[in-house]
Amino acid sequence: METVLRVIFVYAFVWACFRTLGKRELSQMAPFELVMLLLIPQFFSRALTRQDYSMTNSVVAATTLFSIVFLTSIGSFRFAGFRHVIEARPTVLVRRGELLLPGLRRERIAPDEIFSAMHKAGIEKLEDVAWAILESDGKIAIIRAGGTEVHNPDSDRGTAARQ
Amino acid sequence: MSLPSPPPPPPIDPKIDLTWKQRIGFPILLAVPILALFGIFGETRGHAHTTSGSIDVEVSYPARFRYRQVQSLRVSVRNLSSLVADTMKVSFDTAYVARFSSVRFDPAPKSAYTVDLTDVKPSESRLVSVELWGQDYGNHRGTVVARHGSDSAIVHLRTFVFP
């Protein structure tokens, strides 16, 4: 019983932490940030298992986590309000060639990072960008002026900013 | 005219449509943590009591516990006669005890899994405690026998160790 409650608590705690940090931390991380992220399971593993290394405990913990993920996906699809609580909303960073400072400041995105994403999308000038949007998953989507959507699979802002 | 944000996606009927595999699998997945919340996979204790002639035996034993967890088996023996019992013997089923590891008796047994209780006064109760470490998973059955003279009280035990 305690394992189920502990898994639910850890899920909610990690979710709250990432929602607090914002979309920026969801994107591709620098090696140092990645190492920091990998420490999180180390912190929680003992609290979750409590020296109980039985298969039963592991199965209970895993099924609890899978159930939460599945229920969350159903709730997110079914109810828009719930989806907006669970997932971050996209943030518009560029509109019609104009940098939108409130969005950039809120998401802590430097203009260099926008330009890096533009270059990867094959766009040279800011005036050629209709929309640049920081999506819920932390990636920057670029839409070219004139209505042509640019397919930019590597438009992850973290990767773009550090290359 | 500039738009405040890109056009939103068209609304759809958010009806959940699960595949037959999900219809079967998800209730099973969800059942595990729900059953765990009700303590199905948790540790429970069993109690047994019997009286035979001058001996009263009360046993508290682990009915269910998990692999590599420690539980105690407690046997309380009471002298119902009006005379001092020189020696009361409490024997534990070898087949039962052998299913556990790191077994520790208190008081220590004189011979294999038999504890002698000496000079037990009338109406006096003595406690024999055995620490069991779940090693072999599955259902384990055994007996605890308390003897004094021609009287013998038998208590049947059943312990299930989760894998």
Describe this structure in words.
The complex is a heterodimer of chains A (163) and B (163). Chain A has seven helices and four strands. Chain A is of the alpha+beta class and 163 residues long. Chain A has two domains: 2-86, no CATH class; 91-162, CRO Repressor, CATH 3.30.240. In chain A, strands 2-1-3-4 form a four-stranded antiparallel sheet. In chain A, a hairpin with a 2-residue loop joins strand 1 and strand 2 (98-99). In chain A, helix 1 (2-21) crosses helix 3 and helix 3 (55-78) packs across helix 4. By secondary structure, chain B is mostly beta strands. The longest helix of chain B is centred in the first third of the chain and has 18 residues, at 20-37. Chain B has helices at residues 20-37, 94-97, and strands at 44-52, 55-66, 70-79, 85-92, 100-106, 114-120, 125-134, 138-148, 151-162. In chain B, strand 1 and strand 2 form a beta hairpin. Chain B is built from two helices and nine strands, in the order H-E-E-E-E-H-E-E-E-E-E. Chain B has a single domain (44-162), classed as Immunoglobulin-like, CATH 2.60.40. Chains A and B meet through helix 1 and helix 3 of A and helix 1 of B.
Major pleated sheet of chain B: 9 strands, mixed
Shape of chain A: elongated
Average of per-residue pLDDT values of chain A: 82
Alpha carbon gyration radius of chain B: 27 Å
How many structural domains can be distinguished in the coordinates of chain A? 2
H-E order of chain A:
HHHHEEHHEEH
How would you briefly describe this protein structure?
With 163 residues, chain A is α+β, with helices and mostly antiparallel strands.
